[in-house]
Structure to design on (574 residues):
């Protein structure tokens, strides 16, 4: 090869390298931009939430806000006690959890350990389809099917109760719980199962005493994420819980209408005057909701993190 | 040959063929395992050694579609008969796996697992069983002050001895070991071999190993297995006293393998 040709090739490669470097650089910058933008948006949302929420506390005591037992936003003067809303949210969520945990974990165990391969192939995508149903559609089903059913069954004045909302929320949280719990169970090494079976354990003993305990942190995280989804859900509870801002004080409150934090914001935001104390009160409700959801997700993350550490 | 006849046989394989699906993995395996001895199965990779082992506790049934022809007798009784309960069979025939597989529980709970699933709950009784099993597995001294710590924090060799203790706690008659030292360093291997040596007065041990020196060190009887051609089933080429197999084997293939000419 003539030296000129060689030099030409080297030059070309050099130029290619520079072009490539530019491209790499540009892509890096674009990705950086995307990252900064999304973080900035989240920070801004939080800042606005804080600012508007704290606008209320200039004229209204935070203690009264958090512990007040009455929510009369349009009386004169308005009363913003969110305790009934917090308890309403908690009540609906607790009902949802009580239903979703046994059902979700049971389904996960069934899919992971018991179902034959072909059924597994059907059930897993099916759960994901359930997760994809818009919540307003689910709420519609709850409103037209579940609420009348519960009203007739328990002989109530209205079927729009905390129980109805809890059942629908449980149904919504199920796909999350099942899918993550199933992954956790599947991730349990086969050698644990073999070790247990080879010692003369039955299949059930193996599942109950070795596999599920080994997957426990993943299962807990699945439950926490399911709960996080249930607490933050708006549409379902708005439509099926009846929206009465009364204090749930006893167990039978589950069979009465309640109002949740999310439902309150969704329902009242459209009717408030921009900049009024009611408007800021709803932002403060949003802040409380944010803190609760953040706490639940943080706990779930901690559990998942510990789980990965221990692997 | 006199010694061969003297000990009682606990496991007998009579004309056993074995299939994974349609594939014939073993053909005409005839084997007698004597009580309170260590029997080694050696041979090149994929010759069916581990499969022979699994035939004895029916663990192959966990892995999918398999079929067994011929007889596998435990104390004279066919373990593939319809009235045999596979769960109680496995509590009589324990297995130690290639890779140590303690459960992610405490050391104590690992050893107590077997007795607990058999319904023994009194903590005094469990304490005794756990201590006894850990002593037999030569692990007691190292762990007696940290029984509540996680088994995952033990070294590989300790984990494997824990798995042995876990199996002993069920009081099996036979212990199957599938290359129990292949994931361990020489010191840990030495400890496992010493443990095996002290166990054989109470148990019958069958060990699959790639390591011919190990077979020669630990076993009284050795079986040599081989696949003649690719796609053919594995066969037991020669079986007898370890001292004889390693010094003057009857078959040419055995000699070639022992002397390192292949495999």
């Amino acid at each position: 090869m003539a030296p000129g040709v060689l030099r030409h090739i080297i030059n070309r490669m050099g130029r290619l390298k520079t072009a490539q470097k530019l491209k790499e650089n540009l892509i890096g910058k674009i990705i950086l931009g995307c990252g900064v933008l999304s973080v900035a948006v989240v920070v801004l949302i939080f800042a606005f939430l804080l600012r508007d929420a704290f606008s209320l506390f200039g004229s209204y005591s935070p203690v009264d806000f958090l512990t007040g037992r009455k929510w009369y936003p349009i009386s004169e003067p308005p009363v913003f006690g969110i305790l009934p809303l917090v308890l309403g949210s908690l009540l609906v969520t607790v009902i949802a959890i009580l239903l979703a945990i046994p059902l979700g974990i049971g389904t996960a165990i069934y899919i992971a350990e018991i179902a034959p391969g072909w059924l597994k192939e059907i059930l897993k995508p099916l759960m994901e389809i359930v997760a994809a149903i818009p919540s307003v559609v689910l709420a519609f089903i709850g409103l037209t099917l579940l609420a009348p059913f519960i009203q007739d069954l328990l002989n109530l004045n209205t079927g729009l109760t905390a129980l109805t909302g809890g059942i629908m929320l449980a149904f919504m949280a199920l796909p999350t719980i099942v899918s993550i719990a199933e992954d956790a169970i599947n991730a349990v090494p086969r050698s644990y199962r073999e070790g247990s079976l080879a010692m003369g354990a039955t299949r059930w003993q193996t599942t109950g005493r070795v596999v599920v305990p080994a997957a426990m942190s993943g299962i807990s995280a699945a439950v926490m994420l399911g709960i996080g989804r249930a607490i933050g859900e708006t549409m379902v509870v708005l439509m099926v819980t009846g929206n009465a801002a009364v204090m749930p004080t006893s167990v039978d409150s589950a069979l009465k209408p309640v109002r949740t934090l999310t439902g309150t914001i969704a329902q009242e935001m459209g009717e408030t005057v921009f900049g009024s104390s009611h408007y800021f009160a709803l932002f403060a409700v949003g802040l409380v909701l944010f803190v609760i959801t953040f706490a639940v997700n943080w706990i779930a993350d901690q559990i998942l993190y510990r789980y990965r550490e221990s692997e | 040959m006199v010694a061969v006849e003297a000990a009682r046989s606990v496991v007998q394989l009579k004309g056993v063929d074995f299939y994974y699906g349609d594939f014939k993995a073993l053909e005409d395996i005839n084997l007698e395992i004597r009580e309170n001895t260590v029997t080694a199965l050696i041979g090149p990779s994929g010759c069916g050694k581990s499969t022979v082992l699994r035939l004895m506790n029916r663990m192959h049934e966990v892995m999918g579609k398999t079929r067994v022809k011929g007889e596998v007798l435990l104390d004279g009784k066919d373990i593939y008969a319809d009235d045999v309960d596979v769960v109680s069979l496995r509590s009589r025939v324990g297995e130690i796996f290639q890779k140590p597989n303690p459960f992610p529980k405490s050391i104590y709970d690992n050893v107590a697992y077997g007795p607990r699933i058999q319904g023994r709950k009194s903590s005094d009784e469990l304490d005794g069983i756990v201590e006894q099993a850990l002593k037999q597995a030569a692990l007691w001294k190292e762990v007696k002050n940290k029984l509540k710590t996680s088994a995952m924090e033990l070294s590989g060799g300790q984990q494997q001895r824990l798995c042995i203790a876990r199996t002993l706690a069920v009081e099996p008659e036979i212990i199957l070991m599938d290359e129990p030292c292949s994931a361990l360093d020489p010191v840990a291997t030495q400890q496992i071999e010493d443990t095996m040596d002290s166990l054989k007065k109470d148990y019958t041990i069958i060990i699959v190993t790639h390591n011919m020196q190990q077979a020669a060190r630990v076993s009284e009887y050795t079986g040599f297995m081989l696949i003649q051609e690719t796609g053919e089933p594995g066969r037991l080429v020669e079986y007898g006293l370890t001292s004889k197999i390693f010094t003057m084997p009857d078959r040419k293939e055995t000699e070639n393998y022992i002397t390192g000419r292949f495999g």
Remarks:
- The beta strands of chain A are 71-72, 79-80.
